[in-house]
Specification:
Elements lengths: L1 E7 L2 E6 L11 E10 L1 H7 L10 E2 L3 E9 L11 E4 L2 E2 L5 H4 L13 H8 L5 E2 L16 E4 L7 E2 L6 H4 L5 H10 L8 E5 L3 H12 L4 E6 L2 H9 L4 E4 L5 H8 L7 E4 L11 H11 L8 H9 L5 E4 L12 H6 L3 E4 L4 H13 L11 E4 L3 H10 L7 E4 L4
Parallel strand pairs: 11-12, 11-14, 12-13, 14-15, 15-16, 17-18
Antiparallel strand pairs: 1-2, 1-4, 3-5, 3-9, 3-18, 5-6, 6-10, 7-8
Helix pairs in contact: 5-6, 5-12
Bound molecules: nicotinamide-adenine-dinucleotide and zinc ion.
Zinc ion binds next to loops.
Length: 393
């Protein structure tokens, strides 16, 4: 089959690789009909994620048709159309039984390596390095899906691939980011990052009762989407001081909740902290750039919540934890528990309460994936989200 393989920083290639096959009784093989590139893939593309090996197949947002099932998979049949969560979960361990699917104890065979870094390891992820299990991803013609009796969710035929594809990751991620804010009716929420995750977090914050959502980015096209498609007020952080503007917009109180939908590749603003991150990164002394997180912690109003869907990976430096302490903030974060939110969000899509297709800017064949990665990284051509169909050539 054809698949998109990682070879190093800014080097991905479409290659012929062996077809996947059933390895365990609970596996299924899915023929991919749609797959997307995620902001998280850019962390791999940029060489920020350790544990990658040349030839690894990328992709964790994919859906398609079941073509084969292992003998223990009774809920799926050949021909079923499914979306597959990016987190791999056994469904039965202690975290899974509490609905904390992204913390599954059983799906990451390399969890011991993560334990050395983080104390405890979470779930395996598709196409996201050997630290997360070394599973081949879904930017490919076929994928092996482990724990297929738990993971894939069937989707009704009247909904298009584009309507349901983002149930695999970014829509539940935006939703969990907003839910983690504990929004009370009418509250003001600020969202850093108007990438697909941030934009969907804006929509979900309104769905959960926010009165006003203020979105922050520097890419005009994305700020426009936040205003026109998501009803947000916007701040371009290159033009205005974010803290001052938020303070002014909230009558001096600051937002009740702040969502960092940027993560470890934040662009600096010339602040001392940003210069420091850059210098340390160049000396290979730091992995993460924290401008958005620092701003969120400092800008958040007293007693508020900072929700962090953006990915961080290392030991973070110059985190204003004192600000969080002084203001009694609540911090919430983590990989999304996709399985927990997927049925509810499928229902919202089906009932027309949310339509995530507005984030799509580019539709490409899989063969063009290397160009897609470069365009998405540069945010060129108004690129917000790329969807690829591996069945067209
Ligand atoms: P993206 O790269 O398309 O979007 C990030 C946006 O942040 C860009 O528009 C960029 O211009 C903006 N940005 C950069 N620096 C900024 C700053 N200082 N202030 C405000 N905005 C700034 O990525 P995405 O697909 O939207 O994903 C966003 C983050 O969410 C990534 O870190 C990704 O890894 C993460 N993510 C996490 C989960 C999860 O399970 N928690 C799932 C999916 C994605
Ligand atoms: Zn993703």
């Amino acid at each position: 089959m054809k698949a998109l393989c990682w070879y190093g920083r800014h080097d991905v290639r479409v290659e012929k690789v062996p077809d996947p096959s059933i390895l365990n009784p609970r596996d299924a093989i899915v023929r991919v009909t749609s797959t997307a590139i995620c902001g998280s893939d850019l962390h791999l593309y940029g060489g920020f994620q350790p544990g990658m090996a040349p030839g690894d197949i990328l992709g964790h947002e994919f859906m398609g048709e079941v073509v084969e099932t292992g003998p223990a998979v009774r809920n799926l049949r050949r021909g079923d159309r499914v979306v597959v969560p990016f987190t791999i979960s056994c469904g039965a361990c202690h975290p899974c039984s509490k609905g904390e699917f992204s913390l599954c104890d059983n799906s990451n065979p390399n969890a011991d390596a993560v334990e050395k870094l983080f104390g405890y390891g979470g779930a395996g992820l598709f196409g996201y390095s050997h630290l997360y299990g070394g599973y081949a991803g879904g930017q490919a013609e076929y994928v092996r899906v482990p724990f297929a009796d738990v993971g894939p969710f069937k989707v009704p035929g009247h909904l298009s691939d584009e309507q349901v594809l983002f149930l695999t990751d970014i829509l539940p991620t935006g939703y969990m980011a907003a839910e983690n804010c504990g929004i009370k009716p009418g509250e003001v929420v600020a969202v850093w990052g108007c990438g697909p995750v941030g934009l969907l977090a804006v929509k979900c914050a309104y769905l959960l009762g926010a009165g006003r959502v203020i979105a922050i980015d520097r890419v005009e096209e994305r700020l426009r989407l936040a205003r026109e498609e998501c009803n947000a007020e916007t701040i371009n952080f290159l033009e205005s001081d974010v803290y001052d503007t938020l303070r002014e917009m909230t009558g001096g109180r600051g937002p009740s909740a702040c969502i960092d939908a940027v993560g470890l590749e934040a662009h600096g603003t010339g602040s001392v902290g940003a210069v420091y991150d850059k210098a340390k990164g160049m000396m290979m002394l730091a992995t993460d750039r924290l401008t958005a997180l620092r701003q969120a912690l400092v800008s958040c109003g007293k007693g508020g919540t900072v929700s962090i869907p953006g990915v961080y990976g290392g030991l973070l430096d110059k985190v204003p934890l004192g600000a969080a302490f002084a203001k009694g903030l609540t911090l919430r974060m983590g990989q999304t528990h996709v399985h927990r939110y997927l049925p509810l969000l499928l229902e919202h899509i089906d009932q027309g309460r949310i339509d995530p297709t507005f984030v799509i800017s580019h539709r490409l064949p899989l063969d063009d994936a290397p160009r897609g990665y470069a365009t998405f990284l540069e945010k060129a051509e108004g690129c917000t989200k790329i969807v690829m169909n591996p069945t067209v050539h």
